[in-house]
Amino acid sequence: MLLEVKNLQTQFRVKGGLVNAVDGVDFEVDKGEVLAIVGESGSGKSVTSLSILSLIPNPPGKIIGGEILFKGEDLLKKSKKEMQNIRGNEISMIFQEPMTSLNPVITVGKQIAETIIRHRKLTKKEAILEAVKMLELVGIPTPEKRINDYPHQLSGGMRQRVMIAMSLSCTPELLIADEPTTALDVTIQAQILELIVNLKNKLNTAILLITHDLGVVAETADKVVVMYCGKIVEKATSLQLFERPLHPYTEGLLLSIPKVDEKVDQLFMIPGMVPNPLHMPKGCSFSDRCSKCMDICSQKQPELVEFEGRKVRCFLYIDRPEGKV
Amino acid sequence: MEPLLEVKNLKKYFPVQSGVFGRTTDFVKAVDGVSFNIFKGETLGLVGESGCGKSTTGRMLVNLMTPTSGQVIFEGHDIAKLSKKEQKSMRKNIQIIFQDPYSSLNPRMNIGDIIAEPMKVNKTEKKEDIEKRVLSLLNCVGLASFHRNRYPHEFSGGQRQRVGIARALSLNPKLIVCDEPVSALDVSIQAQVLNLLHDLQKEFDLTYLFIAHGLNVVKHVSTRVGVMYLGKLVEIADGDILYNEPKHPYSQALLSAIPIPDPTKKKNRIILKGDVPSPINPPSGCGFHTRCIKCTEICSKEEPKFEDVGGGHRVACWNL
Amino acid sequence: MTTKNSNQNEETQHPQTPKEESKFGNAWYMLKKNKAALVGLIIIIILLFVAIFGPLIMPYKPNIGDLSQSLQKPSMTHWFGTDEQGRDILSRIIDGTKISLRVGITAVAIALSIGIFVGSIAGYYGGKVDMLIMRFMDIMLAFPSLLLAIAFMSVLGKGIDNAIIAISIVTIPEYARIVRGSILSIKDSEYVQAARVIGNSDAAIIFKHILPNVISPIIVRATLGVSNAILDTAALGFLGLGVQPPQAEWGSMLGAGRGYFYNAPYIILFPGIAITITVLAFNLFGDGLRDALDPKLHQ
Questions:
Q1: How far apart are alpha carbons C242 and C159 in whole angstroms?
Q2: Which member of A110, A178, A275, A316 lies 3.0 to 4.6 Å from A210 by CB, making a disulfide possible if both were Cys?
Q3: What distance lies between CA A305 and its chain's CA centroid?
Q4: What is the residue extent of each domain of chain B?
Q5: Domain A1-90+175-275 CATH superfamily
Q6: What is the pLDDT of residues A2-12, one digit of tens each?
Q7: Do B91 and C1 touch (CB under 8 A)?
Q8: Which DSSP string do the residues of B188-205 spell out, in sequence order?
């Protein structure tokens, strides 16, 4: 297993107390696999990805527990220098806003070359040639001219491609993509998703995809993890999840997406809002919004249990014979 | 039937200044000749990607921007030809809901005052009645009366958007321009707000111009939908027809680009090549020809006319 | 309707949502925590007290001197000593307090009002109006403020009221700049656009919507501006412009006492200390106010 996250806990100090942004999260990603982490604001999905690369700002955040095993070694036990060698090299990341994640005063060619020089120890000239190859790989036309462009001279879609080129320049084994297409127009989003999937197939990179868009998940992911308020509430393969979502939250999310091929008078909606992390409900964190809430749900917190070959955190599935709900 | 709103050949060009003396060298053709009608009680969806001019169009309707040329005709009156007083009075009929719930409310005013302000400024109600109406509007959008004295930062994004909606309603407008009202909200909250807009339309007999960048969002609320590209309307049709049989290649691509939350439905994706050209130097002929799979010779030479192909369905394309 | 009921749900979920206090309540809390700023505030309050109740607390009349008592060192009868005309220095310092505060605060108040007006017009309307106004402000800012004040005084004549006018004119550009910058940063926000759509006039938009949201940096600069104005007053007094004898004023006391530096240094020591403490007090308070009103520091 390429990446194994075990019981990850990341805490933040906010005005008013401590918040467990990531509250005991486990998942695995294998070579060449795409795992999607789905959730809305406050779910902890971005914090999870930043924790893997030890990019949590401290203060106010801190990883307080768990293990992150990458190729068998715990990343949380690595020194700063060791992590620097891993970032960009064995594990790479692309972010949501390509404009703010690229340095505006350095040409894109130099930015890609910088990563290459640092990790692959090539000369400047060799690195620039590699950069041109990477730009070509990500489908940027006339790459030998584009390497001298500055980020602001490129469109949003092109910048995201540059980011992808940068992140793949050292052929990482794991690519973390944090909402890579959210800031892009729909048609460009389609291009970028296609690119990511093609590259994954070509280079056998594992991808950890963070997103709130279930459509994107359906198109690209092999396995899915759904997060709510810092915990995993459902874990399944993509096919399993979409065919039959188990957790009421997942079900609600799927139903509330306006779909192009149906027309309904009233969109389904999940009532209420995500609870304030400092005032979580007693019992299951989704209990105050759940249409299937039972007495026990407001009293105790459910554990993540096995059900029909997948995992779910819900009392509907605990102590019930499989196949019957 | 007379349309409530008629837009005729609306244009908005922004001058680009360069050189030491700031001379105007070029124009950003943000909106380049857009014409459409909106009928009472309907919702016209206006869709397009960034830079297509949909927001600019919406803003010209509420006078946040002055058109470079073209006409906006409301209830039969050309707005530009009215006297200042008549214009001011007429403006009350067209209001707007903004995209960003975090910057569309004045952080220093409590939400009751935010909702009351339009009535105070325009003196539409007697002083005694304003407060009653504020509370009634709060309830209409699903907020409680005791929220009245709270400040925007005490509310979530979805709740703030509800305040924005209440504010837009306070002048009893006939037409509301919804400028991407749910884009900045989480998926589960989007549904709540879309349903609210739907209900309010029925309750108050409203007409909407619903601007969005996603065809899926617009579908739920719209009766008719128009697609814009590079400042022009490329297709307009009844909702069902546009979604089932889009005729313009761009509409087809937009539609197929929406990721479907169902892994078993493998799509025949139309993936467009390249990026949207700059509105400063739009391509010759049809603005879309540089990315179009059906491009033929005439497309790069002459601009196609926006023509009716039956039943009010209009398309601008040489290759139908 | 389901949409409404769901929202009643939303509210009952948070009976104890930590309520963020209003911006000013929060600011007062932050200010209290800043010891230096509190010290500054206390000193300012003391100064105001002295300025208002001066005649009641001064031991001697400030302008009546006993030549037989001239140049006395500080003693039990004259805590701060006497000057060359035999006048009690402590009483004169007390008497001078009202001058410094009056000029400082009035000059800033006038400059602030005009600066806000001018800066608002430049920032809101932009274009040629902006260019004209700001070029003019830039020209004024190119001169050291004191030189410019002296130039104005030479035209207006001496005296405390002319000093107030000169100092306020010289300070206007600074406030105009801040206001203009703040307005530019907010002008295009959506809530300002919303205010326009509702039908607000330009003036209403500027005063009701924009200015209240940019008031913090202006308040801070104004507080610091008072200390600058006090220094300018003292400088003008030192040069013999501004306040005319026999009225006591810290700066003119410094100027008049220059010649006695070696044999009676206390003549300039105490006015100097008075100026320093006053300026320091306003600076500490102004710094504290800036930190207190800066939302980014409220983590």
A1: 5
A2: A178
A3: 23
A4: 5-93+173-315
A5: P-loop containing nucleotide triphosphate hydrolases (3.40.50.300)
A6: 999 999 999 98
A7: no
A8: HHHHHHHHHHHHHHHHHT
Return the domain boundaries, chain C. Answer: 81-246+269-299
Cβ-proximal residues to A107 (8 Å cutoff; 6+ apart), any chain: A147, A148, A149, A150
Longest dimension (CA), chain C: 94
Each as own residue / partner, the long-range contacts of residues C53-60 (CB below 8 Å, 24 or more positions apart, any chain) are C54/C94, C54/C95, C54/C97, C54/C98, C57/C94, C58/C88, C58/C90, C58/C91, C58/C94, C58/C95, C59/C88, C59/C90, C59/C91, C60/C87, C60/C88, C60/C90, C60/C91
CATH number for the region C81-246+269-299 comes to 1.10.3720.10
pLDDT at residue A273 is higher than 90: no
Contact assignment for B98 to C190 by CB distance below 8 Å: yes
- Residue carrying structure tokens 């400042």: B231
Q: Which of B170, B62, B64, B63 is nearest to B111 (CA)?
A: B170
Task: With H, G, I as helix, E, B as strand and everything else as coil, classify residue C90.
Answer: helix
Q: How far is B271 from chain A (nearest CA, A)?
A: 6
Inter-chain touch C20–B143, beta carbons under 8 Å: no
Within 8 A of C1 by CB-CB distance, chain A residues are none
- Mean pLDDT, all residues of chain C: 82
Q: Which of B198, B192, B132, B143 is nearest to B166 (CA)?
A: B143
Confidence class for position A192, pLDDT limits 50, 70, 90: confident
How many other C-beta atoms are found inside a 10 Å radius of the C-beta of residue C279? 20
- Taking CB atoms and an 8 Å cutoff, what residues of chain A touch C3? 269
| Domain at B5-93+173-315: CATH code | 3.40.50.300
Which residue from A minimizes the CA distance to B276? Answer: A155
Choosing among C4, C13, C297, which should be mutated to test the A contact, i.e. which has the most A CBs within 10 A? Answer: C13
pLDDT digits (tens, 9 = 90+) for B252-263: 988 888 888 888
Q: Which residues pair with A20 in a beta bridge?
A: A11
Domain locations along chain A: 1-90+175-275, 101-169
Instruction: Tell me, yes or no, if C25 comes closer than 8 A to chain B by beta carbon.
Output: no
